[in-house]
Amino acid sequence: MPIAVTSKAPAATERCPWCGTDPLYVHYHDTVWGRPDYDDLELFEKLCLDGQQAGLSWITILRKRETYQAAYDYFDPEKIVRYDDNKIVELLANPGIVRNKLKVQSIIKNAKGYLDLQEKGSGFSSFLWSFVGDSPIQNSWRSIEEVPVTTAESEAMSRALKRAGFTFVGPTIVYAFMQAVGMVNDHLIACPQHSQCRSLAL
Predict the structure, then answer these.
(1) Is 35 helix (H, G, I), strand (E, B) or coil?
(2) How far is residue 88 CA from its own chain's centroid?
(3) What is the Cα–Cα distance from 142 to 186, expressed in whole angstroms?
(4) Distance from the Cα of residue 28 to its chain's centroid
(5) What does the DSSP assignment read for 166-197?
């Protein structure tokens, strides 16, 4: 989650401060972030994109999302695992994505990890959601400073993903992922989206 820019508690109808006023970021905050997602491939894409964020801001990756989707065959693991050296060279020449060899290779490794989990009979969504007891954790933060950057759950998920062959899945990246896909509701309680996300919880 983006670093706080204010210590002021939000007013009754104020969004979480991290999204600022950028229209793309505001739309993401209002319609995506914190809403429970149980779709295997959507979760795979989001986890990969969160890994691409390492050392960068999330808005940077969000602005590149459509280019990422086109570059990586819309995050189809079956296609990604077949990428060869020529494809990697092509990706590293693509100005619309982060041209970092380790990050490019990480998505390929993650695709292999995803398929390996499937072969073992574990659906990706079920595997990930098991770390929060299959239901979103509902938090009640009043200020952005209260929101953690890692938790016991994100540390456990990170360890399990690494064992499964995933990379760029440290506990901080994993917690940002968990926030984004609604495994935890970390909208501040004064943010209108807090109650919206709570109502969507299973």
Answers:
(1) coil
(2) 23
(3) 10
(4) 12
(5) --S--HHHHHHHHHHTTSEE-S-TTSHHHHHH
Reported CATH class of domain 17-200:
mainly alpha
Nearest partner of 141 among 44, 41, 4, judged by Cα: 4
Best CA proximity match to 107, nearest among 75, 69, 84, 85: 75
137 φ/ψ angles, rounded to the nearest 5 degrees: -80, 125
pLDDT digit string, tens, across residues 72-85: 999 999 999 999 99
CA-CA distance, 124 to 137, in Å (whole number)?
A: 19
- What amino acid is encoded at 168 in this protein? F
The tokens for 105 are 């290779």
Q: Does residue 67 register a pLDDT over 80?
A: yes
φ/ψ (deg, to 5) at 56: -125, 175
5 to 57, 69, 175, 182: CA distances (angstroms): 14, 30, 19, 23
**Which three-class secondary structure state does DSSP give residue 137?**
strand
C-alpha distances in Å from residue 63, one per residue of 10, 23, 66: 26, 11, 8
Dihedral pair phi/psi, residue 24, rounded to 5°: -65, -45
pTM of the full structure? 0.92
